[in-house]
Design brief:
single chain; 202 residues; alpha+beta; three-stranded antiparallel beta sheet
Length: 202
């Protein structure tokens, strides 16, 4: 299951920021429709801060985490997370699918940028259990875009990442793509997948 999360763009002089809200709770099972999450170990914003810092230490693009606040509420806690806003960005899902998807050439460049980003992140030891097309932002020049990783609250940095972790993340990304293909009745093009694979595997 995935905790209920919302993102909101807002302005904090002099820069735009993104806020996310998350609920977590002390439950052995997640009650349906509650938006709760088992509260085990440290609150997630601390882990997200460490991963965000670790990625940027490796010059891997992810919005810097500016601040967070944790609000205990009985068996739950609410957390507000503030990160830098990536201007003129779209996630890979919206670039690839539906009526507003990007032009064919721009989609190829975006998938190539995503593959290169993941190769560098995995080489740095990133394990991202919630990797999907909506967690990869594409920004910058359309011919040579830059990819960014977001939503790192479940991620961790592993000094010696197992091959099985890479396989699991790639399968998770493939499932995300397949679900969107089924939902929109559109398939990711062969050229996009080749560009992604070449960049991912170097």
């Amino acid at each position: 299951p995935t905790p209920s999360t919302s993102r909101t763009k807002c302005w904090w002089r002099p820069r735009a920021i993104t806020t996310r809200r998350r609920w977590s709770g002390r439950w052995s099972a997640r009650p349906a429709g509650s938006g709760s999450w088992p509260r085990t170990g440290e609150p997630r914003p601390y882990a997200e801060l460490r991963v965000s810092h670790g990625l940027r230490q490796h010059n891997i693009e992810t919005p810097s985490l500016i601040a967070f606040a944790i609000y205990p509420a009985g068996p739950f806690y609410r957390a507000d997370v503030i990160t830098r806003y990536v201007p003129a960005s779209r996630d890979l899902a919206s670039m690839t699918f539906a009526e507003r998807r990007a032009r064919a050439g721009d989609r190829v460049a975006a998938w190539r940028a995503a593959g290169a980003l993941l190769r560098r992140a995995w080489n740095a030891g990133l394990v991202h259990p919630d990797l999907n097309l909506s967690n990869i932002l594409i920004a910058g020049d359309a011919d040579a875009p830059q990819a960014w990783l977001i939503d790192l609250d479940r991620a961790r940095m592993s000094g010696d990442m197992a091959a099985s972790d890479r396989v699991a993340m790639q399968r998770r990304l493939n499932r995300s793509r397949q679900k969107l293909e089924s939902r929109h009745g559109q398939a990711v093009g062969r050229v996009e997948l080749i560009a992604f694979g070449e960049a991912l595997h170097g």
